[in-house]
Amino acid sequence: MLDSVSLDQLRTFLAAADEGSFSAAARRLRRTQSAVSESIANLEVQLAVALFDRSGRYPRLTREGTILLADARGVVAGVDGMKARAKGISGGLEAELAAVIDVFFPINVIAEVAREFRDQFPATPLRLYVEALGGVVQPVIDGRASFGLVVSLPTLPAGLVAERVTSIDFVMVASVDHPLATHAGLIPRDELARHVQLVLTDRSDLSAGREFGVMSPSTWRLADLFAKHAFLLSGLGWGGMPLHAVTKDITEGRLVELSIQDVPPGGLKLPMSAVYRNAAPPGPAGRWMIERLKQCPNESQSGGSLTGP
């Protein structure tokens, strides 16, 4: 019976889980609610598992459904990725490659890849945007960019495919003159809450109402990573930065890496993915750039300082 499970059933399962109801899933998939209910019921029979608890007003994922949801996402993402790669390989060369790069990614690595891109595709103009958070994804949704290299968002908008590329190290820092710099031992959350946290804010509406890594009720929000870096150096608050952007400052004593409760030693590893539209995947030039970026994970951990040499 498992061999007869279809991608359509898995997509319907994902839509129902993401939307929170069969009726909302039906609207997203442009089907009737009865068709969605029947598809999921058939999937449950084939899997011999109840995916949803229907006893309440809205269906809720069962414990088994929650576990299998991750598997379903992996299967669908894998097939979508294979289809996108095949379409990119078989398609003609792009007239222009437009891409959006997350501001967290080392720009010196991008510059090196762009130099190689020029040699590989001398007749293809390159257009690069540098944005943060949802600002990386929005041009892809709008069709202004072939793909975006983004720190993975908790929820990816419908119609987009995410392909893991690399990761970056992310650390919490403060100026050497900041009160937190002299705190002995792990810094508890209640101590962090007494100080202003500098937070990178989203220029798009994709993350509206959601917070990423905010630990203090007192925040200053900046839409530019360079401005955040300057504010950190000036002692105006504490906050997280890509390690490659502050390594020189830490080494030369301008910034101090903070040891924070519940944050692993050495900071966090943030996954970075290439995000593109399922219906319009990157062509040969875009596919070349994505694959080239996958080859330099070590470089992405040790890029240069924001302020240069």
UniProtKB/TrEMBL annotation:
Record-level Gene Ontology MF annotations: DNA binding
Keywords for this protein: DNA-binding, Transcription, Transcription regulation
Domain of life: Bacteria
PROSITE patterns: HTH_LYSR
Keyword Transcription regulation set for record: yes
Domain HTH lysR-type per the UniProt entry, residue ranges: 5-62
Family statement drawn from the similarity comment of this UniProt entry: Belongs to the LysR transcriptional regulatory family.
Protein's name in the database: DNA-binding transcriptional LysR family regulator
Species this protein is from: Ancylobacter amanitiformis
